């Protein structure tokens, strides 16, 4: 079991722990206070990612982790933090960055290769014209997210097998998980979100979300200070009728008016009581009378002893 744990974040990721070799460097021009704040931010992200990896057994000895790099703030941060932690990990694992070029018009194809070559990370650019398929198949006025996500997942999962990746790492953070929870509640009639670790439906891919404990605001600030070459998505993020954006604004308003509410809601996702819900598959409501009878019989036996 020991090789299933990368490290103990309570030891190597303590707030006063020294940086590993070759730490991330923020943009030039920060004063002493700004650099201290950056150091605190980076250590917090490292600690949260390390805790998620430990809690859910995300990375094991010999894993080849495929980091799905979209060009957004989340995936850049994921790759950088995993690189940072990799240097201190007591187990050996490798990272490979993969970008899915969906052939969106105007996509700057040079940005990611130049960045990845500059930091010395192995990478692949997977070219699939899913953009044309999504635009052709999606009716006017409908959101493209469902089909786009399905096509993107299929392409990336298949490629992970080709390159021998044992884990597929996605950049979803705490708010992504909560947004998905409310989207499923409001529009899907189900109580589910994004799990930190998931086995794909066909059983071939293990998906991990190391940023599950991280706040989006922290990720955005880290990406800003690191000056990652962000590539905006013009396919999904700009859609005016995107329900996820409505839910995102709702959660942001709650957090503004009631600080700490999102943290409490995320804890609820990790602390489920099936007997206090109504899912008959998760809890045996029909058998409660039998359970009651057994307890009463046990109580009588104790009194008669």
TrEMBL record:
Domain of life: Bacteria
Keyword Nucleotide-binding: yes
Catalyzed reaction equations: cytidine(32) in tRNA + S-sulfanyl-L-cysteinyl-[cysteine desulfurase] + AH2 + ATP = 2-thiocytidine(32) in tRNA + L-cysteinyl-[cysteine desulfurase] + A + AMP + diphosphate + H(+)
Region of interest: Disordered: 1-34
InterPro entries xrefs: Rossmann-like_a/b/a_fold, TilS/TtcA_N, tRNA_Cyd_32_2_STrfase, tRNA_thiolation_TtcA_Ctu1
Compartments it resides in: Cytoplasm
Domain tRNA(Ile)-lysidine/2-thiocytidine synthase N-terminal residues, every copy: 65-224
Pathway linked to the protein: tRNA modification
Single Gene Ontology MF annotation: tRNA binding
Residue interval(s) of motif PP-loop motif: 70-75
GO biological process: tRNA thio-modification
Gene Ontology cellular component list: cytoplasm
Family: Belongs to the TtcA family.
Subunit structure: Homodimer.
Remarks, miscellaneous: The thiolation reaction likely consists of two steps: a first activation step by ATP to form an adenylated intermediate of the target base of tRNA, and a second nucleophilic substitution step of the sulfur (S) atom supplied by the hydrosulfide attached to the Fe-S cluster.
Protein name: tRNA-cytidine(32) 2-sulfurtransferase
Species assigned in the record: Halomonas ventosae
Lineage: Bacteria, Pseudomonadati, Pseudomonadota, Gammaproteobacteria, Oceanospirillales
Annotated gene: ttcA
């Amino acid at each position: 079991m020991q090789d299933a744990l990368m490290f103990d974040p309570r030891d190597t990721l303590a707030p006063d722990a020294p940086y590993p070799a070759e730490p991330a460097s923020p943009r030039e021009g920060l004063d002493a206070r700004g650099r201290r704040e950056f150091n605190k931010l980076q250590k917090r992200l490292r600690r949260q990612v390390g805790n998620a990896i430990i809690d859910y057994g995300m990375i094991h000895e010999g894993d080849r982790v495929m980091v799905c790099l979209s060009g957004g703030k989340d995936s850049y941060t994921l790759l950088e933090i995993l690189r940072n932690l990799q240097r201190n990990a007591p187990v050996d694992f490798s990272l490979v960055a993969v970008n899915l070029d969906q052939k969106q018009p105007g996509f700057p194809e040079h940005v990611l290769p130049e960045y990845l070559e500059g930091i010395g990370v192995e990478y692949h650019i997977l070219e699939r014209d899913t953009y044309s398929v999504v635009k052709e198949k999606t009716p006017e006025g409908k959101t493209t997210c469902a089909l786009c996500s399905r096509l993107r997942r299929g392409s990336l999962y298949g490629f992970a097998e080709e390159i021998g990746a044992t884990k597929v790492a996605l950049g979803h953070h705490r708010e992504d998980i909560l947004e998905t929870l409310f989207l499923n509640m409001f529009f899907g009639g189900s109580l589910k979100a994004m799990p930190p670790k998931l086995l794909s439906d066909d059983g071939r891919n293990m998906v991990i979300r190391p940023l599950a404990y991280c706040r989006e605001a922290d990720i955005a600030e880290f990406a800003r200070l690191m000056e990652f070459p962000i590539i905006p998505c013009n396919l999904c993020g700009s859609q005016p009728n995107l329900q996820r954006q409505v839910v995102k604004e709702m959660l942001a308003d709650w957090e503004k008016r009631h600080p700490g509410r999102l943290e409490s809601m995320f804890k609820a996702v990790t602390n489920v009581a099936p007997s206090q819900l109504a899912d008959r598959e998760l809890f045996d409501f029909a058998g409660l009378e039998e359970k009651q009878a057994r307890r009463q019989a046990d109580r009588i036996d104790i009194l008669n002893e």
